[in-house]
Amino acid sequence: MTSRVLFRAAAMLLITIWTAFAAGPLFWVGVISLRSTSEFMNSPYALPEAWRFDKYVTAWTSSGYDVYFVNSLIVVLSAVAIVTVVGAMAAHCLARYRFPGNRAVYFLIFSTIVLPPQITIIALFQTLANIGLYDTRIGLILVYAAVQLPLTVYILESFFARIPADLFDAARIDGYSEWATFWKVAFPVAMPAIATVVILNTILLWNEFLYAVVLIVDDAKRTLPLGIQKFMGDQLEDYGMIATGLMIAIIPVVLIYAFFSEKLIQGMTAGAVK
Amino acid sequence: MPFRRRTLGVLAAIATAGATLTPLRAQAQEITLWSHWAAEQPKRQFVEEAIRRFQAANPGVTVKTTWYEKNALYAALRTALRAGQGPDVFYAEPDQVEYVQNNFLLDLTQGIDWDKVEPWARQIWTYNGRSYGLPLEAWTVEMYVNTKLLQELGGAVPASLQHTQSEFLELVRKARARNITPISAGVGDRPFTGAFLTHETLLMRLGKEDYGKLLGGQLRWDDPRVVDSLRFVRSLVEARAFPPGVATMQLGQSHTYFHTNPGTAFFPMGSWYTSRAFNPPDQGGQPADFPLGVMRIPLPDNAACPRCRTIAVGGSYVVNARTRHPDAARAFLNAFTTPEMGNLWLESVMVQTGIKADASRIQGARAGYFRQLAASNADAEYFFGIPLQILQGRVRDTFVQVVNNAFISGQASVEDVVRQMNAAQQAR
Amino acid sequence: MTAIDAMAAPMPAVAEERPVWAAVVPFLLPAAVFYLGLTAYPVVRTIWNSFHHVLPAGDDFVGMANYAELWADDTFWRAVRNTLTWALAAPLLEVGIAMLLALALYAKVPGARFLRIAWFTPVLMSYVVVGIIWAWIYNYDWGAVNVLLRTIGLDEWTRPWLGTTDTALPALILVTTWMWTGFNMVVLLAALHSLPSEVMEASELDRCGWGSKLWHVIVPLVRPTILNLLVLSFVGKMKIFDLVWIATKGGPLWSTETVSTYTYKRAFEWSTFDLGYPSAIATVWFVIVMAGVGVLTWALRQRQKLEY
């Protein structure tokens, strides 16, 4: 019996250590974000003496985070809207219609999930520069939509394929066109899966850095990850302010997670359990 | 591509017109400027003052500035220029010959009062007989010292302003014995700040000509004089002269590390030290009563050229070859080339400049510092450019990784440096 | 899913008798435009680039010169070695630890709901944020790691973790482990919950030891999930860029250089302005990654369902 107790104690200890390890860094940055840099330098691991929530206001108004945040919002939401519609149409089509090359198309799209981004980034840069979309939010939106397309099609296709055929037959008898069938029948039925990909794509794109750093230079068009990087200055590092900026980038994602954790986990684990 | 054709047309028109200082057309023009120095208040204020004066003298022309940190600026420029875009005027340093080679820069041979610019500084920006950059900033490598700490260590600033290598090593050991870090340096975010001691030692030991050959690849790194010089720096490393975290310490941190916390005796740094250290203390500047001294880099035994030291052109402004406002951009740059602006630079920035100016006229609280800097540079024989501005491609990358970083953080021995630099020279 | 699997997969259940191109084309067209324009064409153009010097002034055909240079490029091979080390070590760490954590939650330790959230959160952050936080944690003077070591009297163990060639790569591998273990844990937990409860109860009754129960009963049952996670993690590490770029830029002495950072440096940071050579790196890496995934999936003989 003692061995059992010891085992339990050891397990609890390890779990506690891992929890501190996993959650500690975020907690620490959260604390720094409410302290001034000089307070932080005097004692990096103390709790705030005064809770300086006004730093969030300062970061927002005078460090440009309002611009970066709005840019991120515009780019991510537009890209997600586009990729959801485009991806859902393709997924519905691949799941529903039998035509020669169906599986080939599916495989082609699917296989790009594992594509290393370097293989496209250089040529995307050249291409966007050629057509005048380099350093524009539209260019970045289109690229983001293309990048997330395979994953979106993949998750949605498996869901659409499970929609019972009777539903479509009934729709046809009711005189729905193929187009109307998609929008009025398939799309609403697939709402749970759509929500999953929307949330998943939002988080992945919110955090995206490589494409943004290559395709955007204008300060007024930077997204949050670029904006944060800009503050990794060479002057006296303003740790307190950088931490505030980090939290501004993290909080929306944590909020999404808090409200939609089940959906998000479904999205991230989709298929992986099979 | 209509944009490109129009730009070419404009360029051709300018070329035929001779492009001298034509009065600017009255229509509203906006010049965009991307500049480093986001956090270097004195330089930034100087440029902002210049813009104010320029705009007052040229109604209808406005200058829109975006301030960057250096690394972010370089990254942005490389892609923007490659994409055929970019600002009208931007910050560049003369090592960026690739801009010239790829025709990204507007020829500034005409339209600038070059007789108001130091000839050597113009020379550094001249390729194939054409000048491409306005050399605002010039700088030398100095050994900054906390004189109070130096006295506590039983040392003093010699009359020659230069220790011998053995004296210097002795002071380093004394500091270490008292648990003081002797020399501050930060190479985490800069490719050259860790190489100052090494290349200045090499320059004095080899003399200008052979040092030039070393950087040019005609002299090998296993030359005994080179090995000697590396040994000296290595002996400092072995005496634990540098901060333990030097490999990841950033440039800004290394300043604070020298003058405030924890405080070191020495700080080999470009003379643009002042542009950070003379900020108010709460913005990373040195304490108000800081006992700053300026010395030369320690003198090697058997130095071929004891008075030799490096002078480099640093921050400069250049014009994008594809600008739509070439006249206005040239006029903007030319607004910097007056003795008044040169003196304003010296007074406010406290770093040398490529604009002709009269340092003796500097007045005010910081005049003493400028006399110290002048004393350190008395009778100097200058070599133009730091290695980074001369090396290209793989040798440059190796120099940055090995000499600048791994060598002074103790991760590369003298033999490693010799082997890797020789290999990189052969690979080019 | 391999090519063969995909081809052999059953056709959609809802079959139309008549040709449906009129419906198929409009539905597929937008995706096809995106796919061809912003994925397929860039891939082809990159491969085309790799046989040229691509300079602002124009392109010169150079044949295999870029590939020949690549073959002799020590930095490239260094980057390959680092990336492969990462891609092979990280999956084992992440999935191994995740399995233990998932079992803990499956065994209903107190506070399981809170723990699941706490462990999962790191994966929500961007690599930029993570890179900055961990560069601070590894800071020599005040970073948590060294502060902790000094507190427990191990002063001689302190070092600049990201500034030392021996420790920089392991330190970064630890960061990705920190980040991704929670995600793997959640997936494994879902897999455990989907197991028929009789199996678990049966092994409970057998009273076999914990270790053997884990190894002989649980692991085989969730083996497909584990293999999928391993491949997923492998692919993620083969692409890694942001974390390195923010935390070390590949230094010191190329000890954390990855293929992605080297490609980026050669394309957008080196003074050459040539896009041909980095395209050759990207092409070679593309082939290696695709081959790696192919070999892994073939060797594991499992249906792969990948996400990233």
What are its keywords?
heterotrimer, A: 274 residues, mainly alpha, 13 helices, 75% helix, globular, B: 428 residues, alpha/beta, five-stranded mixed beta sheet, 16 helices, 12 strands, disordered N terminus
Report on this model:
The complex is a heterotrimer of chains A (274), B (428) and C (308). Chain A has 274 residues and is mostly helical. Chain A has helices at residues 2-32, 37-42, 54-62, 65-96, 102-111, 118-130, 137-160, 165-173, 178-189, 191-206, 210-215, 224-230, 239-269. Chain A is globular and about 75 Å long. The relative contact order of chain A is 0.14. In chain B, strand 4 (126-127) and strand 5 form a beta hairpin. Chain B has helices at residues 2-17, 41-57, 70-82, 97-101, 119-124, 147-152, 165-177, 196-216, 224-238, 251-259, 273-277, 326-334, 339-349, 367-376, 393-407, 414-427; strands at 29-35, 61-67, 89-92, 126-127, 130-131, 133-135, 138-146, 266-270, 292-295, 308-313, 316-319, 381-384. In chain B, strands 2-1-3-11-6 form a five-stranded mixed β-sheet, with helices on both faces. In chain B, strands 7, 8, 9, 10 and 12 form a five-stranded mixed β-sheet that branches. Chain B contains 16 helices and twelve strands. The longest helix of chain B is centred in the middle third of the chain and has 21 residues, at 196-216. In chain C, helix 4 (74-106) packs across helix 13, helix 5 packs across helix 8 (165-193) and helix 11 (223-238) runs antiparallel to helix 14 (276-300). The radius of gyration of chain C is 24 Å and the shape is globular. Chains in contact: A-B, A-C, B-C. The B-C interface holds B 74-75, 78-79, 81-82, 84, 96-98, 102-104, 188, 243-249, 392-394, 396-397, 401-402, 405-406, 409, 411-412, 427 and C 55-57, 72, 75, 135, 138-141, 158-160, 162-165, 248, 251-254, 268-273.
Biggest β-sheet of chain A: count, sense, barrel? none
Q: Give the low-pLDDT segments of chain C.
A: 1-17, 302-308
Shape of chain A: globular
Low-confidence stretches of chain A: none
The total of helices of chain A stands at 13
Q: From the helix content, strand content and strand pairing of chain C, which structural class follows?
A: mainly alpha
Q: Could you give the count of β-strands of chain A?
A: 0
**Strand order in the sheet with the most strands of chain C:** 1-2
- Summed over residues and divided by their number, the pLDDT of chain A gives a mean of 87
- Whole-number radius of gyration of chain A? 23 Å
Structural class of chain A: mainly alpha
Largest interface: A-C, 99 and 106 residues
| Dominant shape of chain C | globular
Q: Give the SSE order of chain A as H and E letters.
A: HHHHHHHHHHHHH
Instruction: Spell out the helices and strands of chain C N to C.
Output: HHEEHHHHHHHHHHHH
**Strand content of the residues of chain C, in percent?**
under 5%
Largest β sheet strand count, sense and barrel closure of chain C: 2 strands, antiparallel
